[in-house]
Predict the structure.
Amino acid sequence: MDIETPAALIDETRMASNIARLQERMTALGVRLRPHVKTSKCIEVARRQQEAGAAGITVSTLKEAEQFFAAGFTDILYAVCISPDKLDRALALRRRGCALTLLVDSMVAAQAVVATGHAFEVMIEIDSDGHRSGVQPEAVELIAIGKLLHEGGAVVKGVLTHAGSSYDLDTPEALRRLAEQERALCVRAAERLRSSGVPCPEVSIGSTPTALSAQSLAGVTEVRAGVYVFFDLVMANIGVCAPENVALSVLTTVIGHQPEKGWVIVDAGWMAMSRDRGTQRQKIDYGYGAVCDADGKLIEGLMVSGANQEHGIISRRDGAADAGVVERFPIGTKLRILPNHACATGAQYPDYHLVMASGGTEVWPRFQGW
Amino acid sequence: MDIETPAALIDETRMASNIARLQERMTALGVRLRPHVKTSKCIEVARRQQEAGAAGITVSTLKEAEQFFAAGFTDILYAVCISPDKLDRALALRRRGCALTLLVDSMVAAQAVVATGHAFEVMIEIDSDGHRSGVQPEAVELIAIGKLLHEGGAVVKGVLTHAGSSYDLDTPEALRRLAEQERALCVRAAERLRSSGVPCPEVSIGSTPTALSAQSLAGVTEVRAGVYVFFDLVMANIGVCAPENVALSVLTTVIGHQPEKGWVIVDAGWMAMSRDRGTQRQKIDYGYGAVCDADGKLIEGLMVSGANQEHGIISRRDGAADAGVVERFPIGTKLRILPNHACATGAQYPDYHLVMASGGTEVWPRFQGW
């Protein structure tokens, strides 16, 4: 593989299998899948998800909405509560024909949406696990927001929640419980809105761990998930994939050693891996990443234990000094590093290198910024 | 300030003062300053450093070398040990007139440099504190590498070290001791090379904390430092600056609240701040950053305590639920967040917004990738 290092590789076979796995699960459970493209920020990746059956996309920034709309994606959910000063930019997208849906969780934001005079499609964010934003499913404010939007001329499309605390779990039982809580509380919020006369056709829930754990999705219309397309070591520790499913890796080159310490120095530092240390408090702490050979086969027991901006230090996970590193990993050796967090690692790169089953490669751009 | 959030701001007054402070110190100590431009990856920032008296630049990637050379910088030190498969790209720069200096710390890399047949200028990396790469100052191999290069037709320009373990210190005494160790061991390596007949005109040392702590730089010819140009909260905890000196901040907008918890939700998540949690094990843990008002004045006691990709959660550092957050920080409020680590935060952005003393702003591009 003649690719300059460090580089972000996508294993096409693994990605296809990850896409198929969640898509088939969602189809079997009777809901639409709306992938979150914040993970890849890559048109080509989203096209693969669309071809496999995804319905629309989820974005985390207006830049994503603009980029994907320019590439032909029209059904776009912007799943971060709208900042009133971003309404002009959102409106410009709507006027160009983008079916952009906004999100609110406050009277202030709902009022700002209504004040535009444009019939924005809007969802209301529900807090189903206390980890971030959203209104409580039983809150009086939920109905007030719904009525303000509905009576003010906006189209209340539904309710949305994200059980992000699923990232803190690591047993199938706990994940199933949280998935059911995410479903039940969001469905409950929808029922309250409907009872009060506010239309609420859509119930949108999801996170990769809960999407892969839910037993029933009764009352849900769509599921959102992002990182499943690549998976990563955090997801492996949570238990929803194996390290062998991780489709994103960083290709790196050995540039030196500290033989007495058993250290291999590579050209993938934190700029190449990101500063994400998501496995730090999980079952297995992989440092800045798990080490594979150039073909992607895991080398058991090694990790990127330290990272400077452009230097990674590979050593044994158990802390022992590895023997014979100079001979086993001579300068020039190529390795692949599996990331803790695919969204953060991908963000460090202007493009991905797709590695096809044939061994051939292709460059897929990704974008940066807001 | 009419800037879409999140955005990376540079406070021009603070940056100018940071640049002047180190430049004046280095001039007083009789050495050249060769700033590390990996921090900013921004031509305009490096021009300010050059105008203040810097001599040449340091880079961490060949992309940086290419970008800065294209902008007129010719004296460039690539301070990561050269990977043999990157020699062609380095040679192309040399042939276009770039005075590019390479770094090696092994016989294998030195042999690869010599094998090109080109009279590369090369420095040898010395390990002065055990934190990463480099040969030991007393190692037999140091002389062997020097002779291999010198006799093989390369130009041995000198020795280089970086006491990166300075980031783990936080007292002036410990910093002064490490600065002296960095100086003494690198000078010692230079003396050994000279005694063995290998020319070694340059002795290059540095890290921001040691550069600001060294009492004597006898025998040193140049100092390298990067993050001093912006400073950050890690540097404030180390004790070489105050939070009020930090020139880089992230402008963000309040998009919601969780009033019972005293949380303010902003549109600067980890994508905007980076995943760097460098203050986690320091005197003051600032979470993902310290909170200032829109003018950059620190709001004591607050931090970005949690971050999702595009959501930041601001709460009190002492863990207590802040009262009245909805009234004090209404939706739409602009805040500035000081970063843990300026190099990592800057890397999340395609450009900086320079905020001039006049209040006017200017966009300065920065680049990404390798």
Q: What stands out?
A: Chain A has two domains: 13-229, 243-365.
